[in-house]
Amino acid sequence: MGFGSTTSTPVSTALLEDFSLEMTGKDVGKLEGARDSIPRGTRINVTFLGNEDLEMRLAAARAVKRLGFVPVPHISARRLGSRDAFERFLAGLQADGTADNVFLVGGDPSVPEGPYADSLSLLRTGLLPEYGVRHVGITGYPEGHPAIDAGALWSALSDKHSALSEQPLQGGIITQFGFDVDPVLAWVEEVRDRGIGLPIRIGVPGPAGVRRLMSYAARFGVGTSASVVRKYGFSITNLMGTAGPDRFLRDLAAAYRPARHGELKIHFYTFGGLRATCEWAARFRKESLA
């Protein structure tokens, strides 16, 4: 299927103001090709993959800044082999002027490659503000994590919130993407009920092939029952099509209550499709305002 019609229901375009994007160190060429379709000053998260080295990660952050955007380098706790590796990355970012914003993740390795088991351990080193970091992003999992139980996830979120508040650091949450608005907003409400007032960016997949979306969803434990994905706008029996987040964002806008849910924005997982995602967002906003 295509991206779907976006003209039937007005959407609160405030949710699409100041959206953020995600790329890998290998996507610099794609970023350069998409630069004219990305609003100046957009926050662009740069992932921390195991097959990329220090210089590639630093170069990607520099490219984001050079092209007029705000780099948000990821730091993967379990991929850091030593405290020295952590400090060398932070020092490189500081030297390049790209250390203001970082995003902390635990990382994929089942066994830590060094002394840091999770993103909380990075926060607790106290090193981030020493190297010029001012804003730290942390993860949120509205539909849980396949390898971490719900209680541990909530404890980790609370502990990271506390660790941020104890340092001269601002913070925000970016969620894993999902296909169903209901569990996302239920999770946001619980975050607020737990006294966590951090701004939240709702993770949304950019327009992508259905097969790729299903692959990523399975990896992160996102609900993909036939009824859920049909609600999102595609069928698991047709893996050859393409789907965009039109219906998800319309549903999110319809249910969003700022007084109840606090500050929400959108973070696009682009799967390498930076230009396609930004062109989709511009078209969606334009048609929604028509």
Structural notes for this entry:
With 290 residues, this protein is an alpha/beta fold. 41% of the residues lie in helices and 17% in strands. It has helices spanning 28-34, 54-66, 83-96, 119-123, 127-130, 150-165, 181-193, 210-220, 226-232, 246-255, 258-261, 274-289; strands spanning 20-23, 43-46, 70-76, 101-105, 135-140, 170-175, 200-205, 208-209, 242-243, 264-269. Strands 1-2-3-4-5-6-7-10 form an eight-stranded parallel β-barrel. A two-stranded antiparallel ribbon has the order 8-9. The chain is globular and about 50 Å long. Residues 1-11 have low confidence and may be disordered.
Record the SSE blueprint.
Elements: E1 20-23, H1 28-34, E2 43-46, H2 54-66, E3 70-76, H3 83-96, E4 101-105, H4 119-123, H5 127-130, E5 135-140, H6 150-165, E6 170-175, H7 181-193, E7 200-205, E8 208-209, H8 210-220, H9 226-232, E9 242-243, H10 246-255, H11 258-261, E10 264-269, H12 274-289
Parallel strand pairs: 1-2, 1-10, 2-3, 3-4, 4-5, 5-6, 6-7, 7-10
Antiparallel strand pairs: 8-9
Let me know the largest β-sheet.
8 strands, parallel, barrel
Class per helix and strand makeup: alpha/beta
Strand order of the largest sheet: 1-2-3-4-5-6-7-10
Helical stretch tally: 12
Give the C-alpha Rg.
Answer: 18 Å
Q: Mean of the pLDDT scores?
A: 89
- Could you give the order of the helices and strands? EHEHEHEHHEHEHEEHHEHHEH
Low-confidence stretches: 1-11
Number of strands: 10
What is the overall silhouette? globular
State the helical fraction.
40-55%
Strand fraction equals 15-25%
The separation of the N and C termini measures 24 Å
